[in-house]
Amino acid sequence: MLDVRIDKQLGSFQLDVSLSAEGAGAMTALVGPSGAGKSMTLKAIAGLVHPDGGRIELGGRVLYDGTRGIDLPARERNVGYLFQSYALFPTMTVEQNIACGMRMRGRAERDARVAEKIRTFHLSGLEKRRPHQLSGGEQQRAALARCLANDPEALLLDEPFSAVDEELKAILEGELLELLSAFPGPCILVSHDRPEVERLCSSIVEIRDGHAR
After folding, report:
1. Most exposed of 17, 33, 74, 114 (fewest Cβ within 10 Å)?
2. Domain for residue 22, yes or no?
3. Do 65 and 159 have their domain in common?
4. What is the pLDDT along the chain (213 residues), one digit of tens a residue?
5. Which domain holds residue 201?
6. Do 3 and 71 have their domain in common?
7. Model pTM?
8. Alpha-carbon distance 179 to 190, whole Å?
9. Total count of domains within the chain
């Protein structure tokens, strides 16, 4: 379970969001117009944006508590974040991208985990390719493999289909559901596409002008 209650002031913009997301294959959507605060909410959960107040708790572990002065750095939150552009490193191969940021201490353990993710995400034969040599679906699978390489407790998806056409989107949606079917933790999908979230998500939280409804 992921429980979020945060507020953040940025100039004239006030973010004030409360939401809960279940795990065990249930995906929660954050919907709303551009600039409503959806991506900022994800970044606050991930530790990339620091709220002014509130509380974030994941699986009974406090990630942020403004009253108690708790604010775990991003690397200690164990949250996977899939950026809108996938954010694969362009000069690295698929296997190097997956290995990047792994917490394994030994090379043998790291290599074994990379090989496992290569198999799980159907990337066999693509290990030595760089992002520009991959299709849109292959890039998404590589980015997801990197997100899940450290066994995160929660997964945050920031508009993963916004840059693809409708035909490819239908394919990627199916692949995403298949790949995440075994993920045990909370998963939050940010989107402005209502039909998309109705196909993919079991619950929907709407954010407008920084406020959840």
Report:
1. 33
2. yes
3. yes
4. 999 999 999 888 899 999 999 877 778 999 988 888 999 999 999 999 999 999 999 999 999 999 999 999 999 999 999 887 888 999 999 999 999 878 766 888 889 989 999 998 889 999 999 999 998 888 888 988 898 888 899 999 998 877 666 777 777 788 777 777 778 899 999 988 888 888 888 899 999 888 886
5. 1-78+154-213
6. yes
7. 0.86
8. 18
9. 2
Residue 84 lies in a domain: no
Taking the C-alpha atoms of residue 8 and residue 61, their distance in angstroms, rounded to an integer, is 21
We report the CATH number of the domain holding residue 180 as: 3.40.50.300
Q: Are 98 and 142 in contact (CB under 8 A)?
A: yes
Query: In terms of Cα–Cα distance, which of 55, 74, 80 is closest to 150?
Result: 80
- The one-character DSSP state at 131 is G
Torsion of CA 162, 164, 167, 168, to 10 degrees: -110
Report the alpha-carbon distance of residue 114 to residue 136 in Å, rounded.
20
Residue with tokens 């509380």: 55
* Same domain for 102 and 52: no
Strand order in the sheet with 2-10: 70-71, 61-65, 53-58, 2-10, 13-21, 211-212, 203-208, 27-31, 187-191, 154-158, 79-82
Say whether 211 sits in a helix, a strand or coil. Answer: strand
* Residues of the chain by 3-state class (helix, strand, coil), percent to 5: 35, 25, 40
Indicate whether 58 belongs to any domain.
yes
Domain shared by 190 and 205, yes or no: yes
The CA angle 205-164-92, to the nearest 5 degrees, is: 105
